[in-house]
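Worked Example 4.2. Read the sequence first, then its structure tokens.
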Amino acid sequence: MTAETVDSLLAEGTRVLAASAAAGAARLDAELLLAHVLGEPRSLLRSHPEDPLAPAAAARFRGLLGRRAAGEPLAYLTGRREFWSLDLAVTPAVLVPRPETELLVERALALGPPGAARVADLGTGSGAIALALARERPRWHIVATDVSPAALEVARANGAALGVASVEFLAGSWLEPLGGRRFDLLLSNPPYVGADDPALLADPALGFEPPLALTPPGGDALESLRLLARGAAAHLAPGGWLLLEHGADQGPEVRALLVAAGFAHVRSHRDLAGHERMTEGQR
């Protein structure tokens, strides 16, 4: 029996994924999965395509391949995701960090002072936003909240792995853990996918992510955004900013929420795809 090689397994993986729900980046995903199984960089796969693989490694690759073909996010299969050049651990307890969320980090860095500041990341999930800001602004004291104990465990582990000590992780829903403290910046990437949103059916990967991080309780897409807009001012220092990520078509509604809550300088910003992805307002 001919031994299976890196090249033959990658070809098989590409064919399987190209015909599946994960067809978008079939070859890349196949390479990332095989590199993960072997514990080697993708460059080694390309430089040694003829290397034989042990049957156990081939079987593990095919198992992960089947899960990816069914739509399970790659980050859950490898347990890793890059965000703002940080290598983060990711589990099904947290939302997979998206590139468009980096816009929230960019705006926070633009609005916040270069020196000391008080910042809160509400609904931190994997800790991606809080840890990215901590790396860029070591003098900022950052509070990261989440209602999910499992998510906070992931975030704390990421902070420890990155050697970040300036983030304080607190359990609780949205603004509640902040108590009477006030901040210069409040940021959040809250759930904003409605229960009836066609995206939930169109993207099978969303079915693997924690529902609490995608859809607000009750299914109203704006519920969490509404709560944050109404409650943020009580936790902002004078001149402080609230930054909210939201859906691509929710900009007008979120701007209206911030204006109604008394915020000034309300404006939305577009992601690299040209969609209004986040809105900010100043107390």
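Now turn to a second chain, presented in exactly the same format:
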Amino acid sequence: MQCSHFDAGRCRSCTQLPQPYPQQLAAKQQRARDALASWPELDWLPAIDSAESGFRNKAKMVVSGSWRRPVLGILDADGKGVDLSDCALYSPGLQASFATLESFIALAVLSPYNVALRRGELKYLLLTESDTGELMLRFVLRSDEAVERIRLHLPTLQQALPQLRTVSVNLQPEHKAILEGEQEILLTPETPELTIQVNDLPLRLRPQSFFQTNTPVAGALYAQARDWVEQAEPSRVWDLYCGVGGFALHVASRWRDVVGVETSRDAVASAQRTADALGYARLRFHAGDATAFAQQADAAPELVIVNPPRRGIGAELSRWLESSGVETLIYSSCNVESLARDLALMPSLQPRQARLLDMFPHTPHFELIVRLQRTR
């Protein structure tokens, strides 16, 4: 993929861009194999590749410049804004919306936050697109000073962007490299969620819900877990770090007990609504810490799925799984180094199969899903 911003040195986020895509994928596969070399009998399934462009379903745009002439993109090393509204990684629908959002910033007089001067209000625009082209928009502000102006002019924005479904304001008052704060103000209460179809399942996202950035590859990830679960035929399954329920919904059935665990109450509420709408009476979601949930349970299920953040599941949960009697563990990881550390703490659960899914082309990052089986 050719990128004028990379060639000009304006943006180097896609560090692997100079390499042809097949070489990128091969290098990631080798890195994954090297990290898990302690398990030489591991069966590596063919990697899942990605489209090279237009695959991102979300945009995290730093807002700089002035309210009259806002710049959407990133900040360079000198703190100057770099316009990335034409970035080829974004879907055509996302790209087409940026000019309208720039006009709205001017209409609502939303002064971009100046990092050096610590002045201004608007820090980021966070935009997510569904498979049908509907949009979720979040304004990340330093304070609530501009909230009423956004609310006042919102009908104009909705008319200009009829695909805009959910709009909110996130307040992030701290002068830190933190994307968002805890407080979310929903401006479209009649449509609090964005629905994304993945493998014919509707996943509901609220503003602070996590979802994979590459919808087709996320679908392949969930499908792989579903295939492994069907092979194991467990009667009980836990989906720990379940988010909006992607894995749990894919492995649910009329006869199987499935529990999803996630710290985000919004994500749990969205996941439960989906389960109820689909008639999965034996699929339940619990808001809480995954490790605490496991330790307090009366009995372990036959199969557990974990999909933790980059830090991994950690020593405490790894040791619990090692001694739990769980027969099958499916571990989905975005950090192969933390994955390897966790696997080393579970010698009774041996990795049997693994598959790399290239969720993030042109970067060193990838998703890896591993099936482990108890041997003793």
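Notes for the reader: DSSP finds ten helices and 17 strands in the chain. The two ends are 48 Å apart (CA to CA).
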